[in-house]
Design brief:
Aminoglycoside 3'-phosphotransferase, Chain: A, domain 2; Choline/ethanolamine kinase; Phosphorylase Kinase, domain 1; transferase; 2 domains; two-stranded antiparallel ribbon; Kinase-like_dom_sf
Length: 295
């Protein structure tokens, strides 16, 4: 949903869903949507505001289907109301994790069952059309757009396209599960007795390696932590073939994040320093790709 903050807040406040006047407070941290804490008649809600984002292949109908299925599966807060451009969710009074907390081995032991549940339980509750999130298709679309729209990064694009093709070949055949596909620390909430997984903009069928690679790369796991994570998730000793496939997918996760930010530099109206985010993720990708080439 485009418009300034006052227009967005006015539309949220005017929803027929509310039975009393509302108070709104912006929620920080979102770099795709506009998010608000809504208080109505002593109860708190979250309003997520955003239209389809064609340049990021984000379909709100897909986000809604995934959010509803994740809530039924017990991973995510209940969806209370939805209409074009606005999603109202139950409020979870729990802080998001930080990368430092995600890296703690005990926390990884709590997160992996959540990821398995996403991969294998959420699809049992999906209804209607949902998407396939294949990172290499996403990046082909991104790079085409970046070239067509004259991105300041376009001189680098041909090299990145060649590297992405090498990574896709190295990933090889994959198992298909239902992925969250955006495992940033901020999308994991710790309520003490349990974790919650939120924000399903990019959800879709995918390889489990993408979520695992995203979890590790977004939160800067050590190699030892990555190997332990893979053995725990797959419940078997790690083979060199799986390690190479995983390493390629981790690189793809980082490259996709960098290219996502390049696209956002052109299109997003969210107040966020996308140029710095692009530079950070490109540097992390380059380090990971150098490690991958050494395998």
């Amino acid at each position: 949903m485009s418009g300034d903050r006052r227009e967005i807040e006015a539309r949220i406040a005017a929803l027929d869903y509310w039975g009393a006047p509302v108070e709104l407070e912006p929620l920080g941290g979102g770099i795709t949507n506009h998010n608000f804490l809504v208080t109505c008649d002593g109860r708190r809600f979250v309003a997520r505001v955003g239209d389809d984002i064609p340049e990021h292949l984000v379909l709100r109908s897909n986000e809604l289907a995934a959010s509803r299925a994740a809530a039924v599966a017990g991973l995510s807060p209940a969806v209370l109301h939805a209409e074009p451009g606005i999603l109202i969710l139950d409020y979870i009074d729990a802080p998001p994790l930080s990368p430092e907390k995600v890296r703690d081995p005990d926390m990884v032991g709590r997160i992996l069952p959540l990821i398995r549940k996403c991969h294998h339980e959420v699809p049992k509750h999906l209804r209607g059309p949902v998407v396939m999130f294949w990172v290499f298709h996403v990046m082909r679309d991104y790079t085409s757009r970046l070239l067509e729209e004259g991105s300041r990064h376009m001189g680098r694009i041909p090299e990145l396209q060649r590297e992405a093709a090498l990574l896709e070949e190295a990933v090889g055949p994959v198992e298909i599960v239902f992925g969250h596909n955006d495992l940033l620390a901020a999308n994991l909430l710790d309520a003490g007795d349990r974790l919650w997984l939120i924000d399903w903009d990019y959800a879709g069928f995918n390889s489990p390696l993408f979520d695992l690679g995203g979890l590790a790369s977004n939160n800067e796991f050590s190699e030892a932590a990555e190997r332990a994570m893979l053995e725990s998730y797959f419940e078997r000793p790690l083979t060199e073939a799986l390690w190479r496939s995983y390493a390629a997918m981790k690189c793809a996760s980082l490259l996709r994040e960098a290219e996502w930010s390049m696209i956002s530099e052109i299109h997003s109206d969210v107040d966020f320093d996308y140029a710095a985010y692009t530079a950070e993720n490109l540097a992390r990708y380059e380090r990971a790709f150098a490690d991958f080439k050494s395998l």
